[in-house]
Write a structure and sequence with these properties.
Layout (H helix, E strand, L loop, with lengths): L8 H14 L3 H36 L5 H9 L15
Length: 90
């Protein structure tokens, strides 16, 4: 599928300058930029959806961890006494 993108002359010049520095084509630079943007936005959307699902589950069940429990668990990461994720509670 062929797609065209119109960009102003100033941005076009910046892309070309970067392409020259990287010894890549302007097309490669633009394709890479779009790919990275899409991946970042997909990850952001996934995070948002997970957060909404967690919030909805909390509203339905009331089960949770408090900040102190979570901080203690996180502090154990990478240590000999690395703890398992605590069980949620009411």
């Amino acid at each position: 599928m062929a797609t065209s993108v119109k960009i102003d002359d100033e941005l076009k010049g910046r892309v070309q300058q970067l392409a020259n520095l990287r010894r890549r084509s302007a097309h490669w630079i633009m394709r890479e930029a779009i790919q990275q943007y899409v991946e970042r936005e997909e990850a952001r959307e996934h995070f948002k959806q997970e957060a909404m699902a967690s919030w909805e589950a909390y509203q339905e069940t009331g089960r949770h961890l408090n900040g102190e429990e979570l901080r203690a668990w996180l502090k154990s990461w990478g240590t000999e006494g690395e703890a398992e994720l605590p069980e949620c509670h009411d």
